[in-house]
């Protein structure tokens, strides 16, 4: 393995001959790829590979939401990417066929007081109690960011993928942290098509307070909800 600092050709990622490259914290790390690889079909190994793929898919979707990316950046260690930080935190909780209600979209945080939450054919709704019952907010915290990951599973057509994930977010300006809030996250056209293909779902919801210029100050833990 080699680490390139100040690389004149820029940061690299992907394959180059028998080498593979990735960039972490602005450094390009290159390592040799194996000349051959025999796939192990032992049931335990196959299950681990499937769990790995599920966790990678979930982590990619979490990372696609800018607020969640900013939150995870605050807890990642030196030399490890944000993606790998999310992956490492979620792998123990994933199943081999889909994410679970034990997966997380934030690394801890204050408890999110959700009264009722539901996933409909075209939206996610949640009744959130006053957030100041769970933590203290400062005058600089004026906006709210709501973020959700929805895993749809158990397809009506067995030919469809066993599960699909969508990522949703909403920014609320001049938020009142002293009052209950009825959250609604609408699906776009593609997300509605995905939702229609499945009979069950898992919702992973979190919120964050922000300053007027969009900086995250506090964030909640993950509030999970599974359909019946």
Give me a quick take on this structure.
Helix content is 20%, strand content 35%. The protein contains 4 helices and 12 strands, in the order ββββαααβββββαβββ.
Could you tell me the radius of gyration in angstroms? 20 Å
Shape: globular
Helix content: 10-25%
Poorly predicted segments? none
Taken together, the total number of domains comes to 2
Oligomer: single chain
CATH superfamily of the largest domain: Immunoglobulins
Task: Explain what you see.
This protein is of the alpha+beta class. It folds into 2 domains: 2-32, no CATH class; 43-226, Immunoglobulins (Immunoglobulin-like, Sandwich). Helices cover 20% and strands 35% of the residues. The protein contains 4 helices and 12 strands. The strands form 3 sheets. Strands 7, 8, 10, 11 and 12 form a 5-stranded antiparallel β-sheet that branches. The protein has a 4-stranded antiparallel β-sheet with strand order 1-4-3-2, with no helix packed on it. A hairpin with a 5-residue loop joins strand 10 and strand 11. The longest helix has 21 residues, at 43-63. The termini are far apart.
């Amino acid at each position: 393995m080699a680490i390139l600092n100040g690389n004149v050709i820029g940061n690299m990622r992907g394959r180059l001959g028998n080498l593979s490259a990735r960039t972490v914290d602005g450094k390009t790390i290159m390592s040799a790829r194996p000349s051959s690889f025999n796939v192990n079909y032992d049931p335990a190994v196959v299950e681990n590979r499937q769990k790995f793929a599920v966790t990678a898919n979930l982590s990619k979707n979490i990372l696609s939401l800018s607020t969640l990316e900013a939150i995870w950046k605050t807890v990642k260690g030196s030399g490890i990417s944000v993606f790998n930080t999310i992956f490492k935190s979620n792998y123990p909780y994933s199943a081999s066929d889909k994410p679970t209600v034990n997966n997380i979209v934030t690394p801890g945080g204050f408890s999110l007081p959700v009264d009722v939450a539901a996933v409909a054919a075209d939206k996610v709704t949640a009744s959130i109690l006053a957030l100041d019952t769970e933590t203290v907010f400062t005058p600089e915290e004026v906006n709210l960011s709501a973020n959700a990951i929805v895993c749809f599973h158990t397809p009506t057509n067995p030919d469809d993928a066993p599960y699909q994930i969508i990522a949703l977010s909403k920014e609320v300006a001049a938020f009142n942290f002293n009052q209950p809030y009825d959250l609604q996250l609408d699906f776009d056209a593609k997300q509605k098509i995905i939702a229609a293909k499945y009979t069950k779902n898992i919702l992973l919801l979190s919120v964050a307070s922000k300053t007027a210029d969009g900086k995250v100050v506090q964030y909640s833990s993950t509030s999970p909800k599974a359909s019946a």
